[in-house]
Design a protein that fits this description.
The protein is α/β, with parallel strands linked by helices and about 475 residues long. Helix 13 links the parallel strand 20 and strand 21. The strands form six sheets. The protein has a nine-stranded mixed beta sheet with strand order 4-3-5-6-7-8-9-14-13, sandwiched between helices. It has a domain of about 90 residues: GMP Synthetase, Chain A, domain 3, CATH 3.30.300. InterPro entries: AMP-bd_C_sf, AMP-dep_Lig_C, ANL_N_sf.
């Protein structure tokens, strides 16, 4: 009987040999799809792969992870219950608190990680810990290889990241962040591009240096949050120059429709803006050019299902609920039916997209935000992205704002907004009218704190759109 390490290495080679992880790069620059065989696979073949890989990862976790064996036994679950990929809903939901409890009892990774592979991890990822103790993710050679493949698929195909392309990564470059240099830059090298690991969190302290890099290197593809994309474009206009970016990759939060319009105004050379949703753990969904708002999921890599957060039962088709994800090829530290906390619509498109013929499923709309970001004003359920769309309709604002949440059901929307204009009573009245009408509440119940550009709250390279002031 082979050891977990031997089986892990065998599976890694199998995935490479079968072409799911492409290794014959650099490839012909005229090639349209990075991995046509996988990206245009027939639906019935994708379903077979999902069934095989789901059964394999569940069996693997049961046999090799003490955490899953104990967790599933307490929930009355047995791997034999999974006969088909649709049986994923029979698997108990794993939430972040379950990981935190295990981690605190068995530091640093908890008992979830496969012991023999834990000694061979190549990269440690960690969540921000903004909602409590951070959770850690161990990546081995297989997981890194597959994630870089998944990155290359959209970078090459959607963003034209190819030889001679200059790509600037202005995501978080600090430790434990998987979308920084350890993974994304290596995906750049597969594509043959020049990668600049700028680091969005340092833009505020090294603004002049970063702006100089953009101009001197004539950056083609810029990857950061929608808010930092907007700020950089605004700064360039104030200084009297144009950013060279041709493609804007929007990470870290869904970009509202009006935000995209503003981005094209401040980045006049940009022809394409692509929303990229992802987590530090290695989940991802990417907007398909030509099918705006629809985010594709690489189904050979992960599976999603959506539940009612109050009952944990599957959400009905068309209803919104909590996003649950399963990584099919993470063996070092399996994440099976793991709650990501995002609030999404349970509706997907499986017809090939009209531009590339990609057969993997697509969300019908962007992922608007996390479940805990939902808030009520006058009984109306809202998310920051809805407010963002309205803020961008107010003249002379920078698009930067903070929503202050002071109660579970608020009487007023309390919001801080940046404006370049001297605020008058008329300006404030018109702004409250725009916000109220756009999001469906009485303008009299909108309270705006006006601040100058640069005075909203940020966390690193992310605008803190949701500021929780409720008593814990």
């Amino acid at each position: 009987m082979s050891s977990p390490l031997q089986e892990y290495e065998r599976i890694h080679k199998e995935l490479q040999d079968e072409g799911f992880i492409r290794h014959d790069y650099p490839i012909d620059p005229t090639t349209v799809l990075w991995n046509q065989k996988v990206m245009t696979m027939k639906r019935q073949d994708l379903d077979k792969i999902k069934t095989f890989r789901l059964k394999r990862i569940v069996k693997w976790a049961w046999e090799n992870s003490e955490f899953y064996r104990n967790f599933w036994k307490t929930k009355g679950f047995d791997p034999e219950q999974v006969k088909d990929w649709k049986d994923i809903v029979k698997i108990p939901i794993l939430r972040k608190d379950d990981l935190r409890n295990d981690l605190s009892k068995n530091p640093p990774f908890g008992s979830i990680m496969v012991p023999e592979l834990a000694r061979r991890i190549r990269f440690v990822g960690a969540t921000s810990g903004s909602t409590g103790m951070p959770t850690f993710q161990g990546w081995g050679g297989l997981e890194l290889d597959y994630f870089e493949e998944a990155q290359a698929r959209y970078l090459w195909t959607f963003a034209s990241v190819k030889p001679t392309t200059v790509y600037a990564n202005y995501l978080n470059m600090s430790g434990f962040y998987s979308w920084g240099p350890p993974l994304v830059e290596t995906a750049m090298w597969r594509c043959g591009a020049t990668a600049i690991a700028g680091g969005g969190e340092t833009y505020f302290s090294w603004k002049s240096r970063h702006n100089l890099i953009f101009k001197l290197w004539k950056v083609d593809v810029m990857a950061t949050t929608p808010w930092l994309q907007r700020l950089i474009g605004e700064e360039a206009r104030l200084e009297g120059w144009e950013t060279p970016f041709k493609v804007l990759l929007l990470h870290g939060g869904a970009a509202a429709e009006n935000t995209k319009k503003k981005l094209f105004q401040v980045h006049p050379n940009a022809k394409l803006a692509v929303s990229v949703w992802g987590t530090t753990d290695g989940h991802m969904a990417v907007e398909v050019p030509g099918s705006e708002g629809q985010l594709v999921v690489w189904e050979d890599m992960e599976m999603f299902d959506i539940v009612d957060p109050k009952t944990d039962e599957p959400a009905a088709e068309g209803e919104r609920g909590e996003l649950i994800s399963t990584l099919l090829n993470h063996f070092t530290m399996p994440l099976i039916r793991y709650s990501l906390g995002d609030y999404v619509k349970n509706e997907f498109i499986t017809d090939p997209d009209p531009k590339f013929g990609i057969t993997h499923m697509r969300f019908v709309e962007p992922i608007p935000g996390r479940v805990e970001w939902m808030f009520k004003v006058q009984g109306k359920l809202l998310l920051p992205i809805y407010v963002e769309d309205a803020v961008n309709e107010i003249p002379d604002t920078t698009g930067m704002f903070n929503i202050f949440i002071y109660d579970n059901n608020m009487d007023k929307l309390k919001i801080r907004i940046e404006s370049r204009k001297t605020v008058t009573d008329d300006y404030d009245r018109e702004a409250r009218k725009v916000l109220g009408e756009r999001i469906g509440i009485d303008p009299e119940n909108v309270e705006i704190e006006w601040v100058k550009p640069g005075e909203t709250i940020w966390t690193g390279y992310k605008l803190q759109v949701f500021v929780d002031k409720r008593k814990k």
